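Reposting from the mailing list since nobody answered there.

I have sequence plus structure tokens for a pair of proteins and want to know whether others read the tokens the same way I do. The first protein:
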Amino acid sequence: MRIDYTAALVFLLSATSALAGHNCKCQDANGQYDGLTAECCGENGSGLCVHNYPGPNNQCSSPTNCINSGQFVQCCQRYGVGGAFCWD
């Protein structure tokens, strides 16, 4: 039974890290898109989620680590960009 709890904990921690982040920007093989990054930064997050644009690398930044990277990628793709680059 102990292994089941450990596996569940590892899964939950990895799921959280995949959803939340400190930095994202709209970017694909053709370059980065600062205007769309600003737009998606405004759409991503609410409530206690603090985010701002631009960061030092023209990214959307969240000191509270609450950018949903999956939603950010979808936002960039909705505007025709291949994806987003997100990092901590």
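The second protein, same order (residues first, tokens after):
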Amino acid sequence: MTGSVANASAASGTEVGYPNGHLGHLKPEEQEALESFKTYLAEKGYYKPGPPASHDEQTLLRYLRARRWNVVDAFKQFKETEDWRKANDLNVLYDTIDLEAYEASRRLYPQWTGRRDRRGIPLYLFEIRHLDSKTVSTYEKAAETNPSKAVTDGQTSPKLLRLFALYENLTRFAQPLCTELPDRAHATTTPITLSTNIVDVSGVSLRQFWNLKSHMQAASQLATAHYPETLDRIFIIGAPSYFSTVWGWIKRWFDPITVSKIFIVSPSEVKATLEEFIDPKNIPKQYGGELEFTWGDQPKTDPFIKETVRWENGLKDFPEGPKYWRPTADGTRMECVAVGSEGGKQRMVSVGTVERICNVKEVEKKVNGDAETLAEEVKGLSVGDDEKKEVVETGEGATVPAVSA
């Protein structure tokens, strides 16, 4: 490994790593930096204290941690991200992306298994051998057309913008869901803003790595710039003998903090290492665990999650495609809404709700239950106002893809 299991444990111990530096576990100087950051952002016109505030504190903390609590440096990265999001209409991209275009991206890149690690952080799997040059070429050609109602400045490649719909799913769906699950340490104080990743590089030739180099570099650098501190532990499995050469490229794509979280696991250490951080029932069988999860599968939702969600519209699991969580009108629960488009028809369907467990000072949108207000959250839809109202209130006219068993 690049670091031993003991070192990996230390990275999440009492001095460094989650939950330290997160809400509920801030040192006095870190709390002071957060307040200074909010004031500085407000002065620059990038933050409104509300209520409701324009950005939640857990998001602001991601930028501070990424820039080692330097307010000015954190502002620079935050500003660049906010400008980039606005220039590329990221919210509209996610809310209106064509479902098949979204799924085409999901099938290529890190996939949520539907499970979590021992700390309650969502667990992702990335099998790189599926990302061969032919597949990437086909995907990139298909991605030349805009799959959503977003209007962009053209500076970011469309093929990469589709990828960032997946990062939006991480921050708007998977992390908020895991935040409100009560079966984890710090559930009432500390939101989940990270992900744990198993990266399988077995069966990948040096030529394949080389052919993917520019594509993966561009994606990694943009993700590091605009979604800081969303990655926690990254376990690289199946590394071939030449991987030290590849590692020399890869580690330059990330900041030092991210590099410190990456562990190259030898074949003999895979099962023991993963079990230290992940319950065996949540580890895919091919890595010594018990979970039936094959690359490309829809998430195999944790039975506890299924029991915790109060399902709506006849659903028993989360549908395919983009989804996000928002507070209910009374603020006591979080509601999951499935969005995206199919056949040009906008989808906005209530999937279910969970009780709010994490009692931090939330920054949230005002939700008053008015259907017209809810519909306006998605701009530029291809349906009329009356149709929007019908979809929001009843789900009629919206399509819900088949869910996984």
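Reply #1 (J.P.):
I read it the same way you do. The chain has 15 helices and eleven strands.
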